[in-house]
Amino acid sequence: MSIDHVRYNRVMRSWGWLFASLVLSAACTKPNPAKHCTDGTCTTPNYPFCDVTGAIGGEEGTCIAVTCNAGEFGECRGDAEVRCNATGNNYDVVQCERGCDAAAEGCRLCSPNETACTNGTLATCNENGAIVSKQTCALGCFEDQPRCRDIIPSNNLAMYLDMVPNAPELDLSGGGTIETVTGTVTTGTGSMTVPSFLVSAPANGAKIRVIVAGRVRLGNVSVIPGGAEDGPALAILASGDITVEGRIDITDVDRPTAGGVSFAGCSGGPGDLRREGSQELYTAYGGGGHATPGGRGGGVDFQAGIGGGDGGGVSGTETLVPLRGGCSSGGASGGGALQLSSRTRIEVVGVINANGGIVQPAQDSQSGGGAGGGILLEAPSVVLGAQAKLLANGGSGPSCSAYAMQSESMAVALGGSTSSPYCGVGGNGAAVDIAATHGGCASYTTSVTRFWGGGGGGGLGRVRINTRDGSYTKASSTIEAAALTTGTLETR
Fold it and tell me: Which of 16, 70, 116, 144 could make an S-S bridge to 110, C-beta 3.0–4.6 Å?
């Protein structure tokens, strides 16, 4: 090989290494896709926001980590506003209907001497175009009028909300009692006057005591009819937030309830008394029904057997329209009914109890258990806290007692035990995914004179939650002991 060829090969190798170095260098300076966002999007969770203009982080076209104050204005990006999200870890980019104005820190909301509803905010501007009033619309803006959309409370109650435009606050954070027959509200310091209305019962529903208020705070509150029989259900309509801080009882064990009902087909079938010579054979009521049926009442194991009353059947609607509680069984009322409707927000950090009613054996050993009641919550936003409980289980059917037999000799024979073979065991009330059980039969023998079947357990009640989009927030420890359904708010 000639010297010229050797020199040529050396030169070419040198040029090759130089070319490779240039290619490698170019590759090392290529934009990092995890940092740069030329297409406006970021995919790395730790760097979620694309700072297109560099106004937030200082370098345009980069993905950045975000720590900001919720709702804080970031910048105008053309006709869109950049604003810190609700959790303070990213920015939302919202297209403005009237364009964005950095001087106004966001979307233009109104023109001089105008009231307008845009981008979910109702605002009024003065003659200089400055905003003099502003209201966030929890349900968005109405399509062709300068106003926020409003809720339509279930059960045709919107007219009552409108009848009290400047409703007072209802503060029962210290506890109290609400009587639904009269509408009387009592606290530890006396009674208070609240705007209220009584609505007639629709077919298959209960009467409703409607209370209209501004902001509502409820501590330990007993909701009772205030009479000797089941009375109207309770509906509280609020223009502001409703907060349940304590325990609301709309069922008080063996007392009448506010909203409990008694309808053919859902109330527990009756028990009976049969005489065989000097012996008395008492059969028991079946449990009341609601979202699930009640259990059958217990009878007496005599010859072919004497059965108790049928359990009440499934009744009512999952929407709780019409509003009503659970069905009764003999002397046991069904759980009550409560509707809470807010224009803004409902938060439950306490307990709402609408469990089915029960009776003590000494009072009525032939009854069954009342069915669980109804709880209706509706607001643009509903939040259930870690200690929140929505309870609408069925009531248990009673078993007889020595006292109930009203016989000294029987009391001695039974030893005061409710588990005696002469007393059928009461059925258990229904719970979530657990059906009500039937009342037990009393075992027959010729040595005693009275026999009592156990009452059937009551069916499960209902909980309905309506929000803007059909979803709500709850903690992992929240308890919802009912047949639960969700839906979207009706608006106007």
Answer: 116
Q: In 357-406, at which residue ranges do the beta strands (DSSP E only) sit?
A: 374-378, 381-384, 389-391
Helix (H, G, I), strand (E, B) or coil at 450: strand
Alpha-helix runs per DSSP H in 149-305: 158-162
Residue 211: what are its φ and ψ, rounded to 5°? Answer: -110, 130
Q: Answer whether residue 120 shows pLDDT above 80.
A: yes
* Among the listed residues 242, 326, 284, 281, the one whose alpha carbon sits nearest the alpha carbon of residue 443: 281
Q: How far is CA 313 from CA 258, 265, 283, in A?
A: 21, 6, 19
- Tokens read off for 81: 């506003």
- For range 37-64, the mean pLDDT: 89
Give the pLDDT band (50/70/90) at residue 414. Answer: very low
Q: How far, in Å, are 39, 119, 399 from residue 95 at the CA level?
A: 18, 8, 66
Q: Is the pLDDT of residue 355 over 70?
A: yes
273 CB neighbour count, 10 Å cutoff: 9
Lowest mean pLDDT across 202-216, 336-350, 409-423: 409-423
